[in-house]
């Protein structure tokens, strides 16, 4: 048996739609894989009652098929489904790393990314790597069609998760099909600023680079209280605030000393609109970890 811990992730980070991703220190999924004649799946943990155990409908089933590695797979969910924190990606990433180890496939972490992305397609309808890449490789990642670039970073973060459910499919439906050249130029500049900030471990640059005038405003309409929570986080010291992935989680970049204050401010702002929420004081961290 091989056991893998794969972290939650935040995709997009505002200006990097379908490209940027970051591994979070917490929460995480733990997946155990054991060789078997056919793939079977057991799911426990947060939100497990909503996750299908049919291998044809679960992300890890698709990963096992792609690797030709049938197994009994136990998933202990620490990342809530439909949270915007890469729940399905964490399971897929852990399964890919674990099955690669269990069957001795010898694939590199980067080579496992597109395989795990195939698992993501079961949930979102498309094989996007912006969540699975950081969950496997760690740090800040830039996912392109021809591969993944990763950067070690340790930016302090607060992720605030309200008791609201938004599916990835629904969040993709509101993404604008066109954008003005002015907005495109602005987003390119912001994305470049964010990438430099990650390379320098500079929370101020990362926060400035989170600004996005195209996708985020459309998705913000799906999250009750988003504007108020964003304002509260910025007033409490956040250097930048945006939607994590498809939402509803909201992520704030900050300095270490401000995390506790920002977390409280975001929870209180959600409470003002009668939405319960919890906050994770975390940072960009490492990728999937194997325990044998």
UniProtKB/TrEMBL annotation:
GO terms for cellular component: cytoplasm. Residues 197-270 form the GHMP kinase C-terminal domain. One of its GO terms (molecular function) is homoserine kinase activity. It is an enzyme of class 2 (transferase). The keyword Kinase applies. GO terms for biological process: threonine biosynthetic process. Residues 59-139 form the GHMP kinase N-terminal domain. Pfam families: GHMP_kinases_C, GHMP_kinases_N. Coiled coil: none annotated. This is Homoserine kinase. It comes from Natronomonas aquatica.
